[in-house]
Design goal:
The chain is an alpha+beta fold. It has 38 helices and 46 strands. It has 6 domains: 420 residues, Peroxisomal Thiolase, Chain A, domain 1 (3-Layer(aba) Sandwich); 92 residues, Alpha-Beta Plaits (2-Layer Sandwich), CATH 3.30.70.3290; 264 residues, Malonyl-Coenzyme A Acyl Carrier Protein, domain 2, CATH 3.40.366; 64 residues, Malonyl-CoA ACP transacylase, ACP-binding (Alpha-Beta Plaits, 2-Layer Sandwich), CATH 3.30.70.250; 142 residues, Roll (Thiol Ester Dehydrase, Chain A), CATH 3.10.129; 168 residues, Thiol Ester Dehydrase, Chain A (Roll), CATH 3.10.129. The strands form 9 sheets. Strands 31-32-36-37-38-35-43-46-45-44-42-41-39 form a 13-stranded antiparallel sheet, sandwiched between helices. An 11-stranded mixed sheet has the order 5-4-6-7-1-8-15-14-9-10-12, with helices on both faces. GO terms for molecular function: 3-oxoacyl-[acyl-carrier-protein] synthase activity; fatty acid synthase activity; oxidoreductase activity. It comes from Periconia digitata.
């Protein structure tokens, strides 16, 4: 016994008939069947149907199990596939690609993680029916045909799309392909050849070819269903579908925090060896396989609770397979303690190469949900199964038996002898994990993880993101996601897991949607209320710049809602320690926590360092979220935090510079005899200066140019009050800042020296130790100088200028966007960092102006503004909104730190809606010949055959390939000891073909100038290939006729090629049966009593003896004869052979044996026995048959025959025939034939 490492199933996806990609659990639990008729978009089932399965070229099954969706609709752009290539791509490979991505999504593996990974792909491949359709007309093939259908591409396409570097192998073991692919994948992972593996397969029933092959082989059930292990087993019903699973070592899965769906304990494969036939299974081989599967890993047979068998429903395979299972796995079971046995094929049909994947996924669902699914189509166990009393097939679902080991074995067997088996167990139970029955959802009952309440919610605010590669897919996904939320658990752990799964374990695509919420219910409400135009499309990763708020934006309890973020809390704690060392007598965190009436945050000595500390903490927090600027600019004291963000000064220096700046401002407030103030004005600097005092009436100065029509003025408090009054009189915006001192004015000059002395040594020392590598640091754009500055130019004196000089905010922002140099990317997002969005209005005005081109040149900038925090809005919600907007615009952000989901207790939710594909376009390449074969055919006519797909233009061609077993009545037409296709057979071929192609409702069908040129001899066991062609007759120089057609009948053999047998003209008309011949025949019928009655059996003996016409029962249909010289009346009986034949295809109007009996008067009309000779019809001037003729078994028709000419020397003669039906009591003419030339066979036999 080997110590084989268990493998984890971490994700799966499927396409199942009847349900598609969702709902399989409920479908199987209810024991439903996905059987249906063949959808019209696959092929014309009626054209291929024949009740006899061994009839080549036909299908006896009445239906199968089909996917509910359009298999030709595809989303090629998702997979980077162009339209032409998509049309050439086999729909089976398309399904596999979709399932592979959905499986990765289900496992929580992103495309970024997969790219370059040593992950293998093992695909269960099969023949391409799609290519078979194209192969009918390879002149229409394309550059992509080979890569679109070749079996190697099943695996290679998946590897290529994901960028996987592990083994990539397509496996063909027939119906065992899926399980063999899983087996090979297990071996590859266990050997270390790859770290994980995709295993997938797909089957699409989009053509008749393989169907015909299987049916001719006799493997399909007439019902098209699988009666797995049932007494009714007669063959299998086909199905289509797809599946994909992802496996990896269990230890790796647990270490990565993957959701483990099930565990593969062992896999095995073998071959049946030499049996009675290559498709005959071997019970001993299957028993050996099942034994090895358990013994190699030390698993007791009796602990396997359920066996998912191959269960195709064939009368040979099912007993062999189930008997092997009973002998090995159920060896110690009993009727009271049975092994449960089932097969998903009873529900979904036999999906052939992909069948094992659907069986596997069924087993995983049962193990996850503690349930056993029933079989569909089951009534009683097949009596041929040995040990059947130890097995039980369920007809209703049941809970997993109490105390039973959650272990299943499953088997798959290929019709070429390949056998594969798998042993699965339930995922290891964690005490915190509970499974929701039916939904297949993983809910984790964790204690709340560091919850920080949003106002009134009691729950943590989270950022939720959805994305897709197209707006159509995004809208569809949002809709399906909303439906999902309607039944989502109302737990904090679910909300956390949902945010984790969407943010960290899902691929983020260009079309994005982000929203914050604290519960599933609030998330649903937020999504419903968010306008659709807020869903963004991303073309490139945006470049972000920061602008830092200056003084005056502070407010009580600013940013306190962010302290549950460890990065933010640690930054404030670090600032608190630095401030304490610098001599602060107050605690930063305490001051920030105070309420409105107790807060001293507007005091200069506190407001300055507090605002800077909050900005530094925001920079650190956003950095941990992955939000890092490429450039920074600061307004006034905001430049301190900007310099830190650009790694020009250290964290400690930034706190010190702001702290001593606050001390300096406090000194001005305390010592000044003239109080200062500051005022924000909504006007230009020029207009503002017109409101300044003249001469020595007071002092005011432009302190900051915020935008082209927004400034801040600073100066004496009384002057500032006067300017405010003037501005208000002019209806200008005017708001006094909460600063208490006149920054950026001469008021600050008195403290400049002491301020410089406080920071000089600190700044010099710290400026040499930037926070981040200088090559990646953001560029710093100064609002003192209006240009980019570096660590070399920012010294202690710079901060004095920052305190005294006017703020050139416009110039700083313009420089940020105008700067050019190495590795400089113009920002397209400008984020304000500060306790409130004070710079929002002026910044937007600057950006608006920069976006307007000048002198037909390109605009300087095209950027948007985003705030971080906003007064009156929950800080977490505000910052999460910022992160969401940046994500929606294309930024890469760290969702683990944003949502605080780094803890090991979070889990990937496995029941989230899968990606919504954009299937608005059908990608299908069906060349004319292929399409004609799929859809252009008509119901098989037992005589005429199929309508051929190879017709050209207006030509209509029919082909029938048959043997005497298919048309056994032909054996009864023997002429001169050879079986000949009857003359009337060529007539019926013309009539049946004409009725098939003509939409005419005219009363009569007429065949003109029917020539039979060569007889069609048929040997026993000969495959007869007959083609009947119709071409519309030319109407002089005009267009082709719609009612008159030329026709000919030909046969083909390998030895002789093509042989023409008959030709003529056929048309429809409204003419009645009023000819002289008909009138004469009516009169003859009136005198029937005067004619001599003949014995019909004797007449057939004479035809055999003298005319060499040996008619068997099918042709002995003339039951009564009456004769006078040159005239014969006889009755024709329509036999039951019509009914037998018509069940195999469309009805034949008048079958050849019935028509042939019209001519059986020719012997009697020749006269005495001595005058009779072997003659056969070779030419007919005209056949006229009623379009409404109906022949029913048992019906009698009356025929009047007249000889119109006779050559005694050659015995050749001409005759005409009139047929009457008598259903109304009055003879009604329904057919008129003549004149017909009869000749000896040497003159041109039929």
């Amino acid at each position: 016994m080997s110590q084989r490492q268990p493998l984890a199933v971490v994700g799966y996806a499927y396409r199942a008939p009847g349900v598609g990609r969702t709902g399989l659990f409920d479908f199987l639990e209810q024991g439903k069947s996905a059987w249906s008729k063949v959808p019209a978009d696959r092929f014309n089932q009626e054209a291929f149907y024949h009740p006899e399965s061994r009839k080549p070229g036909f299908i006896s099954s009445k239906g199968a199990h089909f996917l509910p969706d359009d298999i030709y609709a595809f989303d090629p752009t998702f997979f980077n596939i162009k339209a032409d290539e998509a049309r050439a791509l086999d729909p089976q490979i398309r399904l596999l690609l979709e399932c592979a991505f959905e499986a990765a999504e289900n496992a929580g593996i992103t495309l970024q993680e997969l790219m370059g990974a040593d992950i293998g792909v093992f695909a269960a491949s099969d023949k391409s029916e799609y290519y078979n359709t194209e192969a009918h007309d390879l002149y229409t093939s394309s550059l992509f045909t080979a890569t679109g259908e070749n079996p190697c591409m099943w695996a290679n396409r998946v590897s290529y799309f994901f960028g996987l570097t592990g083994p990539s192998v397509s496996v063909d073991a027939a119906c065992a392909s899926s399980s063999y692919a899983i087996h090979l994948a297990c071996q590859s992972v266990l050997s270390g050849e790859c770290s994980a593996a995709f295993v997938g397969g797909a089957k699409a029933l989009n053509g008749p070819n393989s169907w015909i092959e299987l049916d001719t082989m006799g493997t399909l059930s007439p019902e098209g269903k699988c009666f797995s292990y049932d007494v009714k087993a007669t063959g299998f019903g086909r199905g289509e579908g797809a599946g994909c699973i992802i496996i990896k070592p269990l230890a790796d899965a647990l270490a990565c925090g993957d959701t483990v769906r099930a565990v593969i304990r062992n896999s095995a494969g073998n071959h049946s060896g030499r049996t009675q036939g290559i498709s005959m299974p071997s019970r001993s081989a299957q028993e050996a396989l099942l034994s090895k599967l358990h013994v190699d890993v030390g698993c007791d047979f009796s602990e396997t609770t359920y066996a998912e068998g191959h269960g195709t429903g064939t009368p040979v395979g099912d007993p062999i397979e189930a008997s092997a299972i009973a002998t090995v796995v159920a060896s110690r079971r009993s009727r009271s303690n049975p092994l449960y046995l089932g097969a998903v094929k009873s529900n979904l049909g036999h999906i052939e190469n992909a069948s094992g994947l659907l069986s596997f996924i069924k087993c995983v669902m049962m193990l996850e949900n503690d349930i056993l699914f029933p079989n569909a189509n089951f009534t009683a166990l097949n009596a041929s199964i040995e040990g059947g009393e130890r097995l039980k097939v369920l007809t209703k679902s049941m809970p997993w038996p109490p105390n039973a080991v959650k272990r299943v074995c499953m088997t798959n067997f290929g019709f070429g002898g390949s056998n594969a088996a798998l042993l699965l167990e339930a995922a290891p139970k964690a005490p915190t994990i509970t499974l929701t029955h039916g939904r297949n959802n993983l809910n984790v009952d964790y204690s709340d993880m560091n919850p920080r309440a949003t106002p009134g919610s009691g729950e943590l605010e989270q950022l939720f993101v959805l994305s897709a590669r197209s707006p159509i897919s995004l809208d569809a996904y949002i809709s399906s996601f909303q439906e999902y939320l309607k039944t989502a658990p109302a737990t904090t752990s679910f909300t956390k897991n949902l945010a984790f799964t969407l943010g960290t374990r899902r691929t983020h695509f260009p079309y994005r949607f982000a929203v914050t919420a604290h519960s599933a219910n609030s998330l649903q409400q937020k999504i419903a209320s968010t306008p659709a135009n807020l869903r963004s499309g991303v073309t490139a990763i945006p470049t972000v710049a920061f602008t830092f708020t200056g003084q005056g934006a502070q407010h009580h309890q600013m940013a306190t809602d962010l302290q549950h973020y460890s990065e933010f809390q640690q930054s404030l704690a670090a600032a608190d320690k630095i401030l304490s060392r610098l001599g602060a007598t107050w605690r930063l965190t305490e001051e920030l926590a105070k309420g409105e009436h107790e807060s001293r945050v507007n005091d200069a000595e506190i407001s300055q360092p507090a605002c800077t500390a909050v900005q530094l903490a925001l920079v650190n927090l956003l950095g941990s979220w992955g939000i890092v600027p490429k450039a920074v600019v600061g307004h006034s004291s905001g430049e301190i935090a900007a310099a830190y963000s650009a790694s020009i000064i250290s964290f400690e220096a930034a706190i010190a510079i702001s702290y001593f700046r606050g001390i300096a401002a406090s000194k001005v407030i305390a010592d000044s005899t003239v109080h200062g103030a500051m005022l924000a004005l909504g006007t230009s600097a020029e207009d503002a200066e017109t409101m300044f005092p003249q001469h020595d009436e007071g002092y005011a100065v432009i302190a900051a140019i915020n935008s082209h029509d927004s400034v801040t003025v600073s100066g004496d408090a009384s002057v500032i009050a006067d300017i405010q009054e003037q501005a208000e009189e002019k209806n200008l915006f005017a708001r006094k800042l909460k600063v208490g001192v006149a920054y950026h004015s001469k008021h600050m000059q008195r403290v400049a020296g002491s301020y410089l002395a406080s920071i000089k040594t600190l700044n010099a020392a710290s400026s040499t130790t930037p926070r981040r590598n200088a090559t990646t640091n953001p560029r710093f754009f100064s609002t003192v100088t209006g240009r980019m500055e570096t660590v070399e130019t920012i010294d202690s004196q710079y901060w004095i200028e920052n305190l005294l000089m006017p703020v050139q905010y416009v110039k700083g922002v313009e420089a940020l966007f105008a700067h050019s140099g190495d590795n400089i990317i113009t920002p397209n997002i400008l984020v304000e960092i500060g306790p409130h969005s004070a710079l929002q209005s002026p910044t937007k005005r600057i950006l608006e102006k920069l976006a307007v081109s000048k002198d037909n040149s390109a605009p300087l900038a095209s950027a948007i503004y985003l705030p971080s925090l906003m007064r009156g809005k929950n800080d977490s919600a505000a910052l999460l909104d910022l992160a969401g907007k940046l994500f929606s615009l294309g930024s890469k952000i760290n969702f683990d730190t944003i949502n605080q989901t780094q803890k090991p207790s979070v889990r990937v939710l496995r029941d989230l809606p899968s990606y919504e594909w954009n299937k608005s376009v059908r990608y299908i390449h069906q060349p004319r010949l292929g399409a004609e074969r799929l859809y252009g055919g008509q119901k098989y006519n037992t005589l005429l055959g199929w309508k051929s797909p190879y017709s050209e233009g207006d030509e209509q061609v029919f082909r029938n390939v048959f043997t005497l077993d298919d048309l056994p009545w032909i054996r009864d037409h023997v002429v001169m000891k050879e079986i000949l296709f009857p003359y009337t057979g060529f007539v019926s071929l013309a009539i049946e073909g004409f009725r098939s192609i003509s939409v005419s409702t005219l009363q009569t069908i007429s065949i003109l100038e029917l020539h039979v040129t060569t007889s069609l001899k048929i040997e026993e066991d000969q495959l007869v290939d007959v083609t009947t062609k119709f071409r519309p007759a030319k109407m002089g120089t005009k267009a082709n006729s719609s009612t008159i057609w030329n026709f000919e009948t030909l046969s083909w053999t390998e030895a002789h090629g093509w042989t023409q047998h008959s030709y003529g003209i056929i048309e429809a008309s409204n003419s009645n049966f009023t000819s002289a011949a008909v009138t004469s025949a009516v009169e003859i019928l009136k005198d029937k009593s005067r004619l001599d009655l003949l014995n019909s059996e004797h007449e057939y003996e004479l035809l055999q003896d003298n005319n060499n016409l040996d008619y068997g029962p099918s042709f002995r249909n003339a039951v009564s004869f009456w004769k006078s010289p040159g005239v014969v009346i006889h009755e024709v009986l329509v036999r039951d052979i019509e009914k037998e034949i018509n069940e195999r295809g469309s009805p034949v109007t008048v079958h050849p044996p019935t028509l042939d009996a019209m001519f059986h008067s020719m012997g009697a009309i020749q006269g005495t026995n001595r005058s009779r000779a072997v003659i056969v019809p070779t030419f007919c001037q005209q056949w006229r048959i009623s379009n409404g003729i109906v022949t029913q078994p048992g019906q009698k028709l009356t025929v009047v025959s007249r000889r119109t000419s006779h050559d005694p020397k050659s015995n050749n003669m001409d005759m005409d025939f009139i047929m009457f039906e008598n259903s109304t009591g009055t003879p009604t003419p329904v057919a008129e034939i003549g004149p017909v030339k009869f000749q000896c066979p040497s003159s041109g036999p039929s």
